[in-house]
Model the fold of this input.
Amino acid sequence: MTVLFCIIFGSQAHADATPKWPDTPVMRLQALAVLQTLNSELLSNDSATLTLDRWCEKHGLAQGQKVRAERDKSTEKPVTAEIRSILKVNKSEPVAYRRVRLVCGERILSEADNWYVPSRLTEDMNKALNGSDAPFGRVVQPLKFQRHTVAAELLWQPLPERWEMGIAIPTSGGASLEIPSHVLRHKAFLTTADGIPFSTVVENYTAEVLAFKPQPFSPAP
Done:
């Protein structure tokens, strides 16, 4: 009972500590701009882990902490023909699977499914990936890899379609914005400096990327 109480109380305390975004037209516009900024930063950088490191620090999500990975060893997903095609491997080539949550402090910023080719990594890299919760991007950083985005999708639209044409923006009368659990999805693959693919990922970014106090909008004079 005590353990259960601590889990529930801890989760509630964490939720209460998360800053709320007021449900106003300006805040909805600001939320969209923030999501588009994160999307742009992910698209223009090779490492999602390092991008989230900077995001976490910039927005004060966890003072002085780096993003870490928490592995989900209970989940397994098959290696499809499409994945093998992206990785350019035949049916006999082993492909490993790794599911992690990228966490900053106590905040889960993304949940990622990663399929990779162990034979294209070093022995030390494979040991680190198999025996620790180290983020994939940090482990394979010596490969000087390049990230190639296949798809980027906003899972939440704070503003209605054609809002820029004067369509009314609905609000909840001063309450907080209802932000869904996941707000952004990226699909990408990684290649070595020689252009050889070795990993493909599906990343789902959570509402926790917005877990900071929004600043009031102040137009320039």
